[in-house]
Task: structure prediction
Amino acid sequence: MAKQVKENPKLSKYQSEIRCPIHKCLLGKYDMRTGILNATFFCQKCKIEYTFTIPAQKI
Result:
């Protein structure tokens, strides 16, 4: 993973994390420039699926 960050440092500054609202564990990552629409993530700790809609941010 560290190798990918070194090869493409521009991408890492636009990535944002999606975390479980209860446990705060990492569920996934997305590009802030494009956002996500009705993306479903499953938390392994609480066994619940969460659906996120996050609009794109103008940078």
